[in-house]
Amino acid sequence: MSNLNPGQDAKSVSRRSFLKASAVAAGSTALTLAPAVHAGGSDILRIGLIGCGGRGTGAAENAMNADPNLRLVALGDTFKDQVDGAFRVLKDSGGEKFAVKPENCFVGFDAYQRVIDCGVDVVVMATPPHFRPQHLKAAVDAGKHCFVEKPIAVDGPGVRSVLATCEEAKKKGLSIVSGLCYRYERAKQETFKRVHEGAIGDIVALNTVYNTSFTRYSPRKPNWSDMEYQIRNWFYYTWLSGDHIVEQHVHSLDKVAWAMRDEYPVKAYGVGGRQSRTDPKMGQIFDHHSVVYEFKNGVKAYSQCRQQVDCYTEVSDQIIGNKGFCNVMKHEIVGAKPWRRRPDKKNNDDMYQNEHNDFMASIRSGKPINNGEYMSYSSLMAIMGRMATYTGQLITWDMALHSKDDMTPAKYEWSELDVAPVARPGVTKFI
To answer: From start to end of 121-222, where are the E strands?
Structure first.
């Protein structure tokens, strides 16, 4: 088994030295950019992309389309083939806004820091979620505005780190915009506004469903180490993705929190397991989760997500009030004040583009956006649900927030890496 990452030497990075190097490098560049330098001006904004997969490439395209005076200048990823693929796609689509030179294409575990250090003003983050707390801290320490894909962490320690980092971003006047994209869809904004104004009365219950099929899988190649194999199939490993209840269903749970005016549940319990995703190559995540979240006022949210082949699929959210109900995905209210938003063909309401438009506008105006709190707590709500299904126990909000279950590997190196056992409800312990 090869320990080499294609395109990089065999340098081993322990967790402690990895974080220490990040802090030192970030601190050395923290004063290189005054956050308000672009406010109200036509200066060129320089963007760096960290994480060059499909979502990262799409986010970089959205970023390039969000402002006339910006340039994409740097790409970073764990793997060279990912950087090369993004380079080709973004060069074709970016026109003059694509200004990435070969020397600003970085590969390896430290690629994120090299992107941050190469003179960028804005960082787009789309790596596997495990790395998000480390990368965000380094970028904010260096004074960079950040677009942060969801979820923001996979465990309690990661969430706490991001919350602290986002407080630092506020002090520095930096924009932190979340990839929880439904918050930036104008139709959703109007729908939730009506709910909050009382169109369905008081909320008495919520139901959310995200049932889909399997995601992609990359067959193992002979020269891949355990670490490379797991990162290339990061969806299937809890330490990297958080499980699909965290990586994917977080969108649905964020809509639940939005409906509740960003109040979060006090406790959760549920069931989950692996019925069709049983092959060891599928890592150790579950293929279904069903969780009941209970709020302080007694309202319950019933949450279901599933990734199984040849099964019924549905993505939907219902908010039930004492005077009607709201079908969120259809932007429809039924009851005493019926309403439905029709598609607006004149104005393209692209939530992926909207979030970047608002992000760049906040930088230009000198009025930073900081989505740090809800992006952190909605991620924690999903992690809380996973804790409940993995352990079979009732999990409180405080338990989830203060959990000591840090899933960070001992070392970041291209070598052997054990796979944690599949969780067994009633046996797996809360940490």
So the answer is: 122-125, 145-148, 176-178, 203-212
